[in-house]
C-alpha cells in the first residue's frame, strides 16, 4: 500500500499558491499517494503517513487553535514543537543571545515601554505572517501607537533597525531540505507591496539566486543554533528557509528563519528541487 502524504493548506488557498505544484508529481514518483487539505477541514490527518505544512497562512489570527491542531497530528512536518517555537518571532532574540548574526531585535511585551532606534526602523508583531502588521518608520518617529495597537491585539512587538540593503538588493532565501542545502532565491522588498487577492500574504518579486559563501556560512550557523535550541538534529527538519539581508557593514544578517509554512521557491529552483523535497520526506519517515 502506498504511503499517504497530505499537503496542508488553509480554506482560502486549499491547494496552495502554486509554488508546490511540482511537489505533487515528485512525491507520486517516489510512491506516495498525495492530496491537499486545509488544516481545519474534516480530513483524517491522523491516518496519513506524512502531514506536511505548506500553506497554512491563516494561522496567525488563530494561533492557539492551530497549535492545538498541530499537537494532535502524529506525523506532522515540521513537528509541533518546532511550529510552536517558530511561529513566535521572539525566537530571533534567542538566536541573537546564542551568538548568531541576527538583525538587531528588541522584544516589547504588553505592559512594557518601547524604545526606538535612532535610525529608520521597523515594528512588527511577534506572531504574524506575510508582513501583516509590520510598519516602517522614519528616524526619530515615536511609534508607540503602533506598538500599543499590536499589544491591544494580544501580540508582543518586535523592533528592528531597517536594513536599507533591502531597497537595493532585497532578501536572500536559502532553502534546506532534511538539513541539507537545496537552493536559493532572492526576494524584493515586501513592505509597501500589494496584498495577494487571498488577503493572506504580500506579493513578492522572486528570482533564482546563487548564494555567496558568507551567506551559506551564516545559514549553516543559523540551522545549527536553532537545532541546538530545539534539542533536535538538523536532519529532523523536513524543510527550513533562512532569510538573510546585508547589514550596513555589508555582512549578512538573519532576518527570519522559516520552519513552519514558508514558500520554498520551487518555481525559482532547478526541476530536481521538488524531487529532493520528496526524498527528504521519505528520509523523515525512515
Automatic annotation (TrEMBL):
<dbReference type="GO" id="GO:0046872">
    <property type="term" value="F:metal ion binding"/>
</dbReference>
<dbReference type="InterPro" id="IPR053191">
    <property type="entry name" value="DcsG_Biosynth_Enzyme"/>
</dbReference>
<dbReference type="GO" id="GO:0005524">
    <property type="term" value="F:ATP binding"/>
</dbReference>
<keyword id="KW-0067">ATP-binding</keyword>
<keyword id="KW-0547">Nucleotide-binding</keyword>
<feature type="domain" description="ATP-grasp">
    <location>
        <begin position="92"/>
        <end position="286"/>
    </location>
</feature>
<protein>
    <recommendedName>
        <fullName>ATP-grasp domain-containing protein</fullName>
    </recommendedName>
</protein>
<dbReference type="InterPro" id="IPR011761">
    <property type="entry name" value="ATP-grasp"/>
</dbReference>
